[in-house]
């Protein structure tokens, strides 16, 4: 029997918390193999085995050389920073390597660069790879559609003390899903800070509140507050492993895609559900 070819994966940010989780997940999978491990120049991990943090011998050394790490890979999984991700993506595009992007904090122009690269390679980009979070986003669509009037919408998110961007990419995606469902533009209706005499709440606004502290992996709650009742839709993460497993699921999805820009709804078939029920 002919052996099934394993998907060759490169992990960016190999020495970080998420990088370690991704490497562990790839090593534990039956259909993937670690082919590359990237980190920034000057990192103490450069030259070490990518699995050294866990006492593993992967045979893959951490490098800052993009072509070296990506040249033997089918897909890159990247949870780093926007500037680094875009640099990685340029080499992916040149080499025909697909990309799973979990990086957050992109501005409009940077998102446009990702979309342009997707003309040549397959890219799955989502601010949160968790299956549960993406199902929650679908629930938010339903709730927003049913409570389009008479309900104030607030999004509360909490993360660990080391997170550098706020609100979280997931919180912003939740706001975008709700705003789009309501026919609004999040840029026009989002309220990110309240202090002093703010006046009455604009009923068309979507408020955000951010909490940073300790080792909170990621909590998100959307509050629909009406007269006499309120609904809270929440998702709480206790481990980054859910993001890693979602990333691997996305990588498997991209294996059959020649090019294009996709999200986790595509990976999970949730956009297809819209098409069959809409």
Concise summary:
This protein is 36% helix and 22% strand.
* Secondary-structure element pattern, one letter each: EHEEHEHEHEHEHHEEEEHEHH
Shape: elongated
Proportion in β-strands: 15-25%
Query: Mind summarizing the main beta sheet?
Result: 7 strands, parallel
Radius of gyration: 20 Å
Percent helix among the residues? 25-40%
**Number of extended strands:** 12
The assigned structural class equals alpha/beta
> Which residues form runs of ≥5 with pLDDT under 50?
none
Q: Provide the spatial order of strands within the biggest beta sheet.
A: 3-2-1-4-5-6-12
The number of helical runs is 10
> What is the rounded distance between the termini?
44 Å
Instruction: State mean pLDDT (0 to 100 scale).
Output: 94
């Amino acid at each position: 029997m002919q052996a099934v070819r394993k998907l060759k994966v490169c992990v960016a940010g190999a020495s970080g918390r998420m990088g370690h989780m991704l490497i562990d997940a790839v090593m534990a999978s039956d259909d993937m193999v670690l082919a590359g491990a990237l980190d920034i120049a000057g990192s103490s991990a450069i030259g070490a085995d990518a699995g050294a943090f866990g006492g593993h011998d992967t045979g893959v050394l951490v490098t800052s050389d993009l072509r070296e790490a990506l040249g033997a890979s089918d897909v890159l999984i990247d949870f780093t920073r926007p500037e680094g991700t875009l640099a990685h993506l340029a080499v992916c595009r040149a080499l025909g390597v697909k990309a799973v992007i979990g990086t957050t904090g992109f501005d409009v122009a940077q998102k446009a660069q990702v979309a342009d690269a997707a003309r040549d390679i397959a890219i799955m980009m989502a601010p949160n790879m968790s299956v549960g979070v993406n199902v929650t986003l679908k629930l938010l669509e339903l709730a927003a559609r049913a409570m389009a009037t008479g309900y104030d919408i607030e999004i509360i998110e909490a993360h660990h003390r080391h997170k550098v961007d706020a609100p979280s990419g997931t919180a912003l995606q939740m706001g975008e899903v709700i705003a789009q469902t309501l026919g609004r533009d999040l840029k026009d209706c989002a309220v990110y800070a309240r202090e002093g005499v703010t006046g009455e709440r604009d009923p068309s606004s979507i408020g955000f509140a951010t909490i940073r502290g300790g080792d909170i992996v990621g909590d998100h709650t959307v509050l629909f507050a009406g007269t006499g009742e309120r609904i809270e839709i929440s998702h709480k993460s206790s481990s980054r492993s859910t993001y890693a497993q979602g990333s691997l699921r996305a990588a498997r999805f991209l294996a059959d895609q020649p090019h294009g820009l996709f999200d986790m709804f595509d990976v999970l078939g949730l956009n297809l559900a819209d098409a069959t029920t809409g």
